[in-house]
Amino acid sequence: MIVGLTYNIKKEQIVKENFNNNISKYINQKILENYPERIDDTYAEWDSIETIETIKNALEEYGNNVLLIEADADAYLKIINNKPEIVFNVAEGFYGASRESQIPSLLEMLNIPFTGSDSITIGICHDKSRCKEILSYYKIPNPNFFIANGKCSFKINNFPKFVKPLHEGSSKGIYNSSVVFNEKELLNEIERIKELYNQPALIEDFIEGKEFTVAMLGNGKNLRVLPIVEINLNEIPEDFNKIYSYEVKWFFDTRENKLDIFKCPADINELTYKEIEKIAKETFLKLRLRDWARIDIRLDKNNIPNIIEVNPLPGILPNPEDNSCFPKAAREAGMDYNQMINAILDEAKKRYNLV
Ligand SMILES: Nc1ncnc2c1ncn2[C@@H]1O[C@H](COP(=O)(O)OP(=O)(O)OP(=O)(O)O)[C@@H](O)[C@H]1O
Ligand SMILES: [Mg+2]
Questions:
Q1: Residue of the nearest CA to atom 24 in ligand 1?
Q2: Which atom of ligand 1 is nearest to 170's Cα?
Q3: pLDDT tens-digit profile of 145-196?
Q4: I want to staple 152 with a disulfide (CB 3.0 to 4.6 A). Which of 39, 40, 148, 280 is the partner?
Q5: Whose CA is nearest to atom 13 of ligand 1?
Q6: How far is the CA of 171 from the centre of ligand 1 (A)?
Q7: For residue 142, which ligand has an atom nearest its CA?
Q8: Which parts of 41-127 fold into alpha helices (H)?
Q9: String of b and e for 186-205 (b: at least 16 CB within 10 Å)?
Q10: In the predicted model, is pLDDT for residue 19 greater than 90?
């Protein structure tokens, strides 16, 4: 088949003076000194050239003709001119809260089949509060929350809270300081998110228990839960909060200095394992996710799995030396990278009756 591959490529890490100056007010000084070239998280959600080339090769190995379509302002013309029969979409977009929905919307308008969730579901998941409202409607446990745009005028009593940008992924904007223990820290984080990311903050109850991520593949009755990955929070340095933050993902866990951050399958009893699978499946179906997704979960103090976040376009770093959750779960299920990519394409093809 002629498969379009839509993507955004990570630009050379340009440390913007401005950004660094602003961030230095907020970030741990040791981090700032040790990792100056990695501080700028502007393109954190985008893919490396290595990832895009490996996806391309994987699709070609299975007999497809692949057209590379960078999801920039000319994407519409490139799609019309190249007429792909189906698109493998991993484009994260750049502008606006609905940026992950822009390529899916374009493809819907042109009536071109594509992998993954539709523009509505992707848009909802990229607004973490809208996603949580739907989960709550279906009584799927997730942390209580409120939103604050730059400031917060009412009194908060129960701490700790967790503060994160409303519209980001790849732990962008999530640092050790995201866990707040008093009002001063809370206000500081709300202000940081407004100043550095120009968006409201989502403030949640801090869910302190074990953390998991659940990769899923398929649709409807054929939806598969891949082996559950546990985030090994014990690997996080002692003086840091037990969260899978930007520091942990991108500074502490490197190819040269790899953390043993995943346990797969997760080290939990059968009952909890089944409960996590159940809530992940329910979330997938209620949010009308399609083909593939990854769902982040933590256990609360009563051991109830809570949905932390839903990723309709999960990161898929190809090199096992880079810890990447979806490929890790796929490998554990017996799929190598190329099989995983083509399994996602196959799910989309089945959905469009193209096989
Ligand atoms: N309410 C919470 N309570 C406890 N920990 C949390 C909470 N929300 C987020 N975290 C921690 O912060 C991490 C990043 O949060 P989240 O998954 O929402 O961010 P993200 O940037 O969308 O992640 P991804 O890289 O998966 O796209 C989680 O993996 C978890 O460790
Ligand atoms: Mg996450």
A1: 170
A2: 25
A3: 999 999 998 899 899 999 999 998 888 899 999 999 999 999 999 999 999 9
A4: 148
A5: 244
A6: 7
A7: 1
A8: 49-61, 75-82, 102-109, 119-126
A9: bbbbbbbbbebbebbbbbbb
A10: no
